């Protein structure tokens, strides 16, 4: 059946392979057979399982390696031209929260931010094993992990390319912190977006926490999957609008909170890219086709089709795969999730032969190696909270000392090539 993982031969090594015609693929986090259950188990009033008496490990994110210190601020964005599609919004306007990572001029007196804010972290701890197979159900303080980004630090007075980040389905934007910080340390402004209603939990600046509100299973419910794609694309267009408003001297914060000093002058809207993981990769690729303001995009293992009408039939290709794209697009897959759906849609995209699309395959790696779990999963295993098998299923066997710089290098080199002009 389309969408079920199937094995395919692949060389086993800690190396990676890149080609414009590589016919191998991966599996999207939103549609893992073990990731979501048809009964929507994330919709529960029960509190997260209490941690055991064993002390929670202190999980550490890898430090960015670029020459600049990193600042971060939170944006609360409200699109009053749209009605939020998810049932808990009760017909209200579309609200989003985004983190903006940027090169900082001075970080003195500005504390480092948490990877996840406390309210969102509390909800994530209860639902994380549903979305991310193999994660522990207890024993982790998800609010304790600190980033290397300093809250509201003044920005460097240099125009920087802008890159939008969209996370995988169910994942909070904070799980893409390491890569966002790396880009910011190398002179990019990164806008990481939480797609409220389908993210595990979104914490707004006023303290409100909005948990996931999906009622259908996006593995099998065609309407839910389609709504997710359409909503994310509209979110992306709106965020680009807000970045343009910021560059023009406006303050996109719906609550009027002041922005970090110099942030507006640091944004160069003549150079905009997008990247995302899982469903976020789907979003980035399709947004590249639909929004001419985007110059390049990276799809980190996202599907490029819709669910089929009937089991065993191919699904409708997304326009980017059906029609091709005339601007640079990088597809990154892992051998841990080799999937016939990816094979068909990614190959269809490459078959257009425009020369704009590259396919890079990572070996000894799996889907969440493209997130912060590349570094965190091995630490959870060392703490006795994850088995070797679960760690391999999550991120693969590649050591983080290799996987983290490899993924960072792929993303940075691609964006440098196409946005540094």
Automatic annotation (TrEMBL):
Gene3D superfamilies: alpha/beta hydrolase (3.40.50.1820). Residues 13-30 have a biased composition (Polar residues). Residues 1-30 are annotated as: Disordered. The keyword Hydrolase applies. It comes from the Bacteria. One of its GO terms (biological process) is lipid catabolic process. GO terms for molecular function: 1-alkyl-2-acetylglycerophosphocholine esterase activity. This is Alpha/beta hydrolase.
């Amino acid at each position: 059946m389309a969408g079920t993982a199937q094995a395919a031969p692949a060389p086993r090594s800690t190396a990676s392979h890149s080609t414009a015609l590589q016919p191998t693929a991966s599996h999207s986090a939103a549609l893992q057979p073990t990731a979501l259950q048809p009964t929507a188990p994330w919709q529960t009033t029960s509190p997260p399982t209490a941690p055991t008496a064993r002390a929670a490990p202190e999980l550490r994110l890898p430090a960015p390696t670029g020459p600049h210190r990193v600042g971060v601020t939170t944006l609360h964005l409200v699109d009053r031209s749209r009605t939020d599609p998810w049932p808990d919004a009760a017909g209200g306007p579309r609200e989003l929260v985004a983190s903006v990572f940027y090169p900082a001029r001075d970080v003195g007196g500005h504390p480092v931010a948490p990877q996840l804010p406390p309210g969102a972290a509390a909800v994530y701890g209860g639902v994380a094993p549903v979305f991310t197979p193999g994660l522990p159900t207890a024993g982790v303080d998800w609010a304790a992990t600190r980033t290397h980004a300093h809250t509201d630090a003044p920005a460097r007075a240099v125009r920087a390319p802008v890159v939008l980040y969209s996370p995988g389905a169910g994942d909070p934007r904070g799980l893409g912190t390491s890569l966002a910080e790396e880009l910011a340390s190398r002179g990019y402004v990164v806008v990481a977006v939480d797609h409220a209603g389908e993210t595990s939990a979104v914490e707004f600046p006023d303290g409100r926490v909005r948990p996931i509100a999906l009622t259908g299973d996006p593995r099998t419910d065609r309407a839910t999957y389609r709504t997710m794609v359409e909503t994310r694309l509209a979110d992306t267009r709106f965020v680009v609008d807000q970045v343009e408003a910021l560059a023009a001297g406006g303050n996109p914060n719906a609550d009027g909170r002041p922005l970090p000093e110099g942030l507006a002058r640091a944004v160069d809207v003549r150079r905009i890219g997008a990247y995302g993981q899982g469903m976020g990769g789907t979003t980035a690729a399709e947004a590249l086709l639909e929004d001419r303001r985007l110059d390049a995009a990276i799809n980190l293992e996202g599907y490029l089709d819709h669910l089929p009408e009937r089991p065993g039939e191919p699904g409708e290709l997304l326009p980017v795969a059906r029609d091709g794209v005339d601007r640079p697009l990088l597809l990154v897959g892992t051998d841990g999730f080799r999937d016939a759906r990816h094979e068909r849609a990614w190959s269809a995209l490459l078959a257009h032969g425009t020369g704009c699309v590259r396919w890079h395959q990572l070996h000894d790696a799996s889907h969440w190696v493209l997130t912060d779990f590349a570094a965190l999963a091995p630490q959870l295993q060392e703490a006795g909270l994850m088995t070797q098998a679960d760690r391999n299923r999550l991120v693969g066997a590649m050591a983080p000392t290799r996987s983290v710089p490899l993924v960072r290098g792929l993303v940075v080199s691609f964006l440098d090539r196409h946005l540094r002009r």
